[in-house]
Design a protein that fits this description.
The structure holds 2 protein chains of 2 kinds. Helices cover 74% and strands 3% of the residues of chain A. By secondary structure, chain A is an all-alpha fold. Chain A has a domain of 202 residues. In chain A, strands 1-2 form a two-stranded antiparallel ribbon. Chain A is globular, with a radius of gyration of 19 Å. Chain B is 38% helix and 26% strand. In chain B, the strands form 2 sheets. A 6-stranded mixed β-sheet of chain B has the order 6-7-8-3-9-10, sandwiched between helices. A 4-stranded antiparallel β-sheet of chain B has the order 2-1-4-5, covered by helices on one side. In chain B, β9 and β10 form a beta hairpin. In chain B, α4 packs parallel to α6 and α5 runs antiparallel to α6. The radius of gyration of chain B is 18 Å and the shape is globular. Chains A and B meet through α3, α6 and α7 of A and α2, α3, β6, α4 and α6 of B.
């Protein structure tokens, strides 16, 4: 019992981190809170499904195309919508939430509901760790999740674009006076965040069916992790994912699954009362944000 | 190298620069002297193009509060409407006032971010040049830039601008709030940069004493208008300049 909680808590935490990483990255760099994030996640899932089942592409090709497509969609969202309201936080939230709502409800309207909308797993099969069964897909999630987080860390510190990300996250005007085109980099950050949402979707969605409602859940989970960890902090995202991930599993194990959803909501309430900027929030001076 | 003609800048109805013209020849150090709100920073932001960026951002949101007239020619090219990031590519780099740095990155990372436009090999050789110029920075390599002192941050700011390999360096009040010793270090560094890297430098200052002796030409700005100009030594002897900008 304890073993199951520990192992599945770990997997659950990585899933939460995967979901929140893109949302947090975009906010950390360009200050844009992308509330269409959950919709992009679901859109990527349906895109893969459509490419496999209606167009007949093989899964790996469909997956890669979906990531690229979602990233381009993010870029378009920035250039066509966000550019005009940049810096006005409420307008950004309303605009992106509106776009997200439109996407999700469009899928519902087009009849994308039902049990046939599923994505294939990467590899079939399962593994025993001690007395606990783990299917391969969950191992993929853990492996890719950890390498993505590490890759992002290295990317933001050792590549030109990554360093430019860190620059405009800290001081846009200074970055601009050094020749870093802040509009282009901010657009890239939204595209990156959207691409990460697509990767998360392709990894996580095979565990169940793709449903429109999950788009809202993903947004809530991403926000919960980011609020608790502190918006824009990658360290915060990881710490908060593990806190919520294990709290959910422990609640699930000891008081039943129907209490699980409440955990993240209660955690949000507590953190807003005790430390509104989150555990690693940027309000804390000189804080690592990316 | 830089020719500014009849520049006028309005912030809504307020006139920040009024019919301002100046000229900078290659290899010169030119100073713009003026008190608070004389228009020095507006001039720097207009020449570097940051004001264009602000203007574009306001236009997108549906407002238009900044108006520009006049012409700026750099290296024989009209750059009046050019985006700031394009101007940097042309070799025109501004160090904004109050030593803006990236506070959460360490010192070396600040320099590496500043080397965005340069090749990897150029970045490491220029970092070495910056440490040559400011040996003090060497032992602070891994310190977060936000924890550096004002003087150290100013050195870093200049170092970051050098990473871009500019042709013309604009320094907006580099000596602001620094001790006389630190001011001398920076003035020496400015002279050294011109000599070694062959840079042209425009520097703005409120307090003229430390900078006037080393400049080729100076412009005195009052209320956005040019009140007088001349070679540095000539300005030093001018009683009005002495009274207003020498603190005597």
């Amino acid at each position: 019992m304890l073993e199951v909680t520990i192992i599945y808590g770990f997997i659950n935490s990585i899933i939460l981190a995967l979901i929140a990483l893109g949302f947090s990255l975009t906010f950390g760099i360009s200050g844009v809170s992308n509330f269409a994030y959950g919709a992009m996640y679901i859109m990527a899932g349906y895109a893969v499904w459509i490419m496999i089942n209606l167009i007949g592409l093989p899964f790996p090709v469909a997956a890669i195309l979906a990531v690229i497509f979602t990233a381009l969609f993010g870029l378009a969202l920035y250039r066509l919508v966000l550019l005009r309201v940049r810096g006005m936080v409420i307008s950004e939230v309303i605009a992106t939430f509106g776009v997200g709502l439109a996407i999700l409800e469009l899928f519902r309207y087009l009849g994308f509901t039902g049990f046939e909308y599923t994505l294939p797993v990467f590899t079939d099969g399962s593994l025993m760790i001690g007395d606990t069964y783990i299917d391969h897909q969950r191992l993929w999630i853990v492996g890719i999740g950890i390498s993505l987080a590490l890759g992002l860390y290295l990317f933001t510190r050792y590549t030109k674009t990554g360093l430019a990300f860190r620059g405009i996250a800290q001081d846009e005007q200074t970055a601009l006076s050094l020749g870093i085109n802040s509009d282009r980099v901010a657009g890239l950050s939204v595209a990156f965040g959207s691409g990460l949402a697509a990767i998360a979707a392709i990894l996580i969605l095979p565990r169940g069916t793709i449903s429109v409602n999950e788009g809202y859940d993903v947004l809530i989970n991403a926000m919960a992790v980011c609020i608790i960890g502190g918006l824009g902090s990658t360290v915060g995202v990881i710490v908060a994912s593990f806190m919520i991930g294990y709290a959910q599993m422990i609640t699930d194990a000891f008081s039943g699954p129907h209490w699980k959803m409440i955990v993240s909501l209660v955690a949000i309430l507590i953190i807003l009362l005790v430390k509104p900027s989150g555990l690693f929030g940027k309000q804390k001076e000189l804080e690592e944000r990316i | 190298m830089l020719q500014i003609s009849n520049l006028m800048v309005f912030y809504e109805n307020a006139l920040a620069l009024n019919d301002f013209s100046m000229k900078v020849e290659k290899g010169q150090i030119v100073a713009v002297i003026g008190s608070n709100s004389a228009g020095k920073t507006t001039l720097m932001n207009t020449v570097s193009g940051l004001i264009i960026d602000t203007k574009i951002k306001e236009q997108r949101k549906g407002g238009e509060r900044i108006t520009l007239y006049g012409k700026i020619v750099f290296d024989g090219k009209d750059i009046t409407e050019l985006h700031p990031s394009e101007r940097v590519k042309e070799g025109l780099v501004l160090c904004r006032e109050r030593h803006p740095i990236f506070p959460e990155s360490d010192l070396v990372e600040n320099l590496r971010i500043a080397g965005y436009l340069r090749k990897r090999s150029e970045v490491s050789s220029t970092i070495e040049y910056v440490f040559d110029l400011f040996p003090t920075l060497l032992r602070l390599k891994t310190r977060k830039a936000g924890f550096l002192s004002g003087g150290e941050q100013q050195m870093l700011t200049i170092g970051m601008a050098l990473m871009v390999k500019p042709k013309l360096l604009l320094l907006d009040e580099p000596l602001l709030g620094l001790s006389p010793i630190m001011q001398k270090t920076l003035v020496d560094a400015i002279l050294k940069i011109r000599k070694e890297a062959g840079l042209t430098i425009v520097v703005t200052e409120q307090f003229a004493r430390p900078i006037l002796p080393v400049i080729d030409h100076g412009y005195v700005v009052e209320n956005g208008m040019l009140s007088l100009d001349g070679p540095g030594l000539e300005l030093m002897e001018n009683p009005e300049v002495k009274a207003a900008y020498f603190g005597v």
